[in-house]
Fold this sequence. Notes:
This protein is globular. Helix 11 links the parallel strand 9 (about 215) and strand 10 (about 240-245). The chain has helices spanning about 5-15, 30-35, 40-55, 65-70, 70-85, 100-115, 130-145, 160-165, 170-185, 200-205, 225-230, 245-250, 250-255, 260-285, and strands at about 15-20, 60, 90-100, 120-125, 145-155, 165, 170, 190-195, 215, 240-245. It contains 14 helices and 10 strands. Helix 3 runs parallel beside helix 5.
Amino acid sequence: MSFSLLRExxxxxxxxxxxxxxxxLEYIPPHIRDGKSVGDALFEFGKALxxxxxxxxxxxxxxxxxxxxxxLEGVAALDKTIRYAKSAGLYVILxxxxxxxxxxxxxxxxxxxxKYSAGADCVTVNPYLGSDGVMPFIKAxxxxxxxxxxxxxxxxxxxxxxxxxxxGGRTLYMRVAELAKKWNATGRxxxxxxxxxxxxxxxxxxxxxxxFFLVPGYGAQGGKAxxxxxxxxxxxxxxxxxxxxxxxxxxxxxGGDGRDFAKLTREAAEKMRDELSAAIMERVKK
Length: 286
């Protein structure tokens, strides 16, 4: 599969965006929470968001930590959500940002890709332990026909404390980009680069013209459509842009009791799609 399914779905839906599922109980409208267990509320919320957007979005990106915080119920809800998203025809990027080495990394990779997994298509990996922490995931991706996004230049404010430091005349994040190019030998490795650093996005796209980019930081974190467009390749492809709170919490921004949350999320997703598509098209024309 590598990223071929993701490319196909983006093309079919003319939409390079992914909805991040980072659920907190306070994000879930009261009428869904009331009378339900934590796990049931998490799943019903995610299911409704998927139902509202599956025909226009190519992918969802559940963030494991926001489920894990609720213990076994949360983990079970994550498993159900991934399986439901797959049944709805969506590409699933499981955001786990794992980083470990040797047999432990192999165990993580097997957990997310192997026969006991929920069936996610892709995971995020922290590569700052070096190849020992990445290659077990690449090998598992080869084995199970999956893919990996490695963190390169992240969207958080303090990312530069490490990622921007000098590493033999190049920034550390550019050194990691060089390694990512090698890790992509079988076409199963993409990178994570934040929308909040547009100049670095453009730099990374020049360095990695053929790799797939996952771009967080759009919307609530301040990234704009014209910033994200810098991550697209020369054909206007090769990029998937994440929005979590901007889509999940559209009902909170609008006010009200949240009974129309699914409709408001769909409207926000349509607006995001149109903004991104227009910005990327404008960039390709230049």
